[in-house]
Amino acid sequence: MATKQQNDRHSPEYYTDPNNSIGYLARIVFRSFSRLLERGTLTQNVSAGQWRFLRQLWLEDGITQRELSERVGMREPTTVVALKGLEKAGFIVRKKTPVDRRKTFIYLTPHAKKLELILAPMNAEIHEIATRGMSDEEVIMLQELMRRVIENLADETRQLTALSEIKA
Question: Using an 8 Å Cβ cutoff, are 126 and 36 in contact?
């Protein structure tokens, strides 16, 4: 038998309070992280938006523009604009290969590679602040729950994409 709380959790009235909305709470967390992170990254002339791309390229350099766009979770036109800014700032170079001229590969400059050693500790510090008072187990559980929410939403998004392709 479902408890009263479980039933309330699904009622539209429950979500009229933004503090019960996972989306609202995630947005507040994201904005707070971004503001604090940018306070540090701007000392190296890196915006929060640029940080997202650099972080993915630090994990794997030399990926295609499309792969980078997917990993950052942005549409390709937005990524193109961001990459122009990153290139102008001297953080990346874009290269096409003779094999497939349609694909553009993104590579970090030596300067951008060195920035990881400066910026990664700033990111770690913000995570320490955000998880203050939580045990290691609670942090792991929070990460697991957030990943589950992301996957649940990704499943729905994939279904929407499939439906729109069928209708087209």
Answer: yes
b/e per residue, 123-152, with b = 16+ CB within 10 A? beebeeeeeeeeeeeeeeeeeeeeeeeeee
Q: What are the pLDDT digits (tens) for 20-68?
A: 999 999 999 999 999 999 999 999 999 988 999 999 999 999 999 999 9
The H or E element spanning position 14 is none
Residue 1 pLDDT > 50, yes or no? no
Average pLDDT over the chain reads 88
Residue-wise pLDDT tens digits, 82-103: 999 999 999 999 998 777 778 8
CA distances from residue 109 to 21, 78, 79, 115, 120 in whole angstroms, order as listed: 41, 21, 18, 10, 17
Residue ranges of domains in the chain: 4-130, 134-168
List Cβ neighbours of 86 (8 Å cut-off, separation of 6 or more): 50, 53, 54, 92
In the chain, the N- to C-terminal Cα span, in Å, equals: 43
Number of DSSP helices (H) and strands (E) in the chain, helices first: 7, 3
Of 3.20.20.70, 1.10.10.10, 3.40.50.150, 1.10.3720.10, which CATH number belongs to 4-130?
1.10.10.10
